[in-house]
């Protein structure tokens, strides 16, 4: 498809903060393609993995299909509209107008495929593989295959199924005849047995392939390749979630779908890199917020070992934005649930489906019936996984909450968004969360699901163990600053299976929800223009881990060394005004040019009894850390260039240390590609991180400047930007300003060959990196 015009920031009123101040509108795509005459005896289908939103598809000027929801994959059967032996035209119209609470992107942002098949073929999403019976000696693999006969005659075919391991060995197979009447669709269920199965888990994500072939005499009619994993799931309030018989606690991250400097566009390598970095940061589970995941992201989770809560909707029948999916939900919800489950069924990474996020109907007796219908629909399509509903108790009791606040303050808060209410009425939030009213209003909704999703309601974790002894809870959305107390509750209670922070990866839209300001009169949760990103992620939009990420890793018990984070010295002495989604305004650096001799505060995160801080070999002091002190020690010192060291102690013995050194001398460009060899594919990318450093590699985070990138050869610059949460620069220009000393260039191959990336900046020697794109 041709590329649409790129979105540009235009709306500067605070309402535009939800979508990152990007424009909305209507987008048209047109493409011509040749259809061979031989396709008359074929079936031609077009798959759209994602079009945002309200997609209308036309082939040769005629209406061919539509799909309102922007996050579902859908199919358009093209045969009746095609002209054989000549050029054809497809047109796609997409519209987004005030229909999202975050940056959604617009238009065709995921893969589009032309599928050509014989009249007798495996149905779309027609192979579903399950493993209902597993032991060490063997596992039962059930392959359910739907075969369609769109011809005019009865056909008897052979269905051949092979199970292939990661080494390419056929470890099980079955052959069965199947008779199909004209126009009939039929299902064949085959049971095969894999000996000494290798189980899929987070630590050992072993995968198998199911090869399904449809044969007629010597004619090969169709073949479908399905990747799957062998693993079991179990759930109870004593042991919690068990995978392959072992209890697993979910170290979870909520994520939105955009890919930072790439916008909403989905590239397989971008999704894979995101999972790699999130897993390195200590997460073992992702929640797609608040929409179904892309196929590429699910594939990456399967390969790399990341558990998934796939979420369906942010709204049911009540709108949250003026023209959102609630306008279509009553008619389309079953098709979209079907699309999500069909997409997910064979992915071992998916362990639960969420039927909604912060749905107001969840607190209403009549409205909650939608939840029952959704849960029943999911179970009818997939009985092998669990169902949850991510409920915010404030939103479930919103009418009573608003009445209470109006009576207390004598002013209307009706038009306040849920995030604003949670941020500024914190005491009332706790009161409502723990109230009997909230218990009663949500009881029916939770009764319909297997796992109760609690958004920002950790205050109920222990009391609900007594109220509902059979209830299993997941912290489906939590504040980042509460991970230490939340994780203690998760570890110590079997009925609490995990914690999903808001949020694991920073994202476009909900601009500034995690910012720290220094204005005591600040009364908005979202940031005014030019705030662009939410700035609440453990990892920023370039993939760089922020200090909170290392704090979380320490809380999870996955990092033994302490971690140093320095509060930005320009704000010393000011009172920070954080939101509920904020972390401290810190950078892990000891380069603060211009602040020599001035006061600075240093935070050290450590799972240690005591932490000592040294500046240029002199002790600043010691302070308690560890769980009892929320894994954090704070120091105040005078900045002087050189070296700062944090040393962690337990029982008087050193157990770890971290050192930061000041950058000195000439500023240099450090240019590193995450991979210097990539495939010449539309879906592969090379991520080139550009940093300002000294000759020893120490970061110059206070010397930001414009950097120019020029790409030659077999590739193009797909995206270019920094993690700056409030920049007015574009992600598609060739010049960008660094933020905290860094900027990211994303290179996309266009053909096989050498891609030369030339990087220059004022006062720095030019640097060049080469990337090979191979077939």
Automatic annotation (TrEMBL):
Residues 240-401 form the Glycoside hydrolase family 2 catalytic domain. Residues 127-231 form the Glycoside hydrolase family 2 immunoglobulin-like beta-sandwich domain. It comes from the Bacteria. Residues 597-655 form the DUF4982 domain. Residues 26-114 form the Glycosyl hydrolases family 2 sugar binding domain. The lineage of its organism: Bacteria, Bacillati, Bacillota, Bacilli, Bacillales. Residues 669-770 form the Glycoside hydrolase family domain. This is Glycoside hydrolase family 2 TIM barrel-domain containing protein. Keywords: Glycosidase, Hydrolase. Belongs to the glycosyl hydrolase 2 family. It comes from Cohnella boryungensis. One of its GO terms (molecular function) is hydrolase activity.
């Amino acid at each position: 498809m041709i590329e649409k015009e790129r979105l540009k920031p235009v709306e500067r009123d605070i309402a535009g903060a939800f979508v990152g101040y990007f424009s909305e509108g209507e987008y048209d795509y047109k493409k011509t393609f040749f259809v061979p005459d031989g396709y008359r005896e074929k079936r031609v289908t077009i798959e759209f993995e994602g079009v945002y939103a309200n997609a209308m598809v036309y082939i040769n000027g005629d209406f061919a299909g539509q799909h309102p929801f922007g996050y579902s994959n859908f199919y358009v059967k093209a045969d009746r509209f095609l002209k054989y032996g000549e050029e054809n035209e497809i047109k796609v119209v997409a519209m987004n107008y005030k229909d999202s609470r975050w940056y959604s992107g617009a238009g065709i942002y995921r893969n589009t495929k032309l599928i050509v098949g014989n009249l007798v073929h495996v149905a779309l999403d027609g192979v579903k593989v399950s493993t209902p019976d597993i032991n060490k000696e063997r596992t039962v693999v059930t392959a359910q295959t739907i075969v369609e006969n769109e011809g005019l005659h009865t056909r008897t075919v052979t269905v051949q199924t092979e199970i292939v391991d990661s080494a390419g060995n056929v470890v099980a197979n079955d052959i069965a005849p199947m008779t199909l009447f004209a126009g009939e669709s039929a299902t064949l269920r085959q049971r095969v047995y894999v000996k000494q199965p290798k189980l899929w888990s987070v630590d050992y994500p072993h995968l198998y392939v199911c090869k399904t072939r449809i044969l007629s005499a010597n004619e090969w009619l169709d073949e479908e390749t399905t990747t799957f994993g062998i693993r079991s799931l179990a759930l109870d309030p004593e042991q919690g979630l068990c995978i392959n018989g072992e209890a697993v606690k979910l170290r979870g991250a909520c994520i939105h779908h955009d890919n930072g400097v790439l916008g909403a566009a989905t590239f397989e390598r971008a999704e894979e890199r995101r999972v790699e970095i999130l897993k390195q940061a200590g997460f073992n589970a992702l929640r797609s917020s608040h929409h179904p995941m892309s196929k590429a992201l699910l594939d990456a989770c399967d390969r790399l070992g990341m558990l998934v809560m796939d979420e369906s909707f942010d709204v049911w029948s009540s709108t949250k934005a003026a023209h959102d999916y609630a306008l279509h939900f009553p008619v389309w919800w079953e098709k979209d649930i079907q699309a999500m489950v069909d997409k997910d069924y064979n992915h071992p990474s998916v362990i639960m489906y969420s039927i909604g996020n912060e749905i107001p109907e969840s607190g209403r007796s009549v409205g909650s019936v939608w939840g029952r219908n959704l849960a029943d629909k999911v179970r009818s399509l997939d009985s092998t996984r669990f169902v949850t509903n991510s409920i915010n108790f404030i939103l479930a009791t919103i009418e009573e909450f608003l009445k209470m606040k109006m009576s207390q303050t004598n002013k209307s808060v009706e038009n306040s968004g849920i995030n604003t209410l949670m941020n500024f009425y914190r005491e009332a939030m706790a009161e409502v969360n723990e109230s009997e009213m909230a218990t009663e209003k949500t009881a029916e909704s939770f009764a319909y699901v297997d796992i109760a999703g609690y958004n920002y309601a950790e205050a109920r974790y222990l009391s609900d163990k007594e109220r509902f002894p059979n209830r299993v809870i997941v912290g489906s959305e939590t504040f980042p600053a509460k991970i230490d107390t939340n994780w203690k509750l998760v570890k110590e209670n079997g009925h609490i299976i995990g914690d999903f922070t808001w949020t694991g990866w920073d994202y476009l839209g909900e601009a500034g929800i995690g910012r720290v300001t220094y204005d005591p009169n600040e009364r908005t949760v979202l940031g005014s223009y030019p705030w662009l990103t939410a700035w609440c992620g453990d990892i920023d939009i370039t993939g760089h881990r922020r200090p909170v990420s290392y704090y979380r890793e320490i809380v999870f018990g996955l990092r033994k060394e302490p971690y140093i984070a320095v509060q930005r010295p320009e704000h010393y002495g000011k009172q920070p005004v954080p939101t509920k989604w904020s972390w401290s305004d810190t950078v892990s650096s000891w380069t603060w040019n211009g602040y020599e001799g001035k006061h600075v505060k240093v935070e050290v995160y450590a799972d240690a009894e005591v932490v000592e801080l040294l500046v240029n070999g002199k002790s600043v002091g010691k302070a308690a850390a560890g769980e009892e002190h929320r894994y954090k020690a704070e120091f105040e010192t005078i900045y002087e260039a050189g070296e700062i060291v944090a040393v962690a102690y337990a029982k008087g013995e050193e157990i770890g240390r971290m050192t930061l050194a000041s950058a000195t001398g000439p500023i240099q460009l450090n240019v590193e590609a995450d991979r210097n060899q990539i495939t010449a594919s539309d879906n592969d990318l090379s991520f080139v991180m550009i940093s300002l450093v000294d000759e020893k590699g120490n970061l110059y985070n206070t010397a930001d400047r414009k950097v120019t990138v020029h790409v030659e050869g077999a590739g193009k610059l797909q995206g270019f930007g920094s993690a700056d949460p409030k920049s007015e620069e574009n992600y598609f220009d060739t010049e960008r300003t660094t933020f905290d000393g860094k900027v990211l260039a994303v290179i996309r191959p266009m053909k096989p060959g050498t891609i030369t990336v030339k990087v220059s900046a004022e006062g720095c020697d030019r640097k060049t990196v080469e990337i090979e794109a191979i077939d």
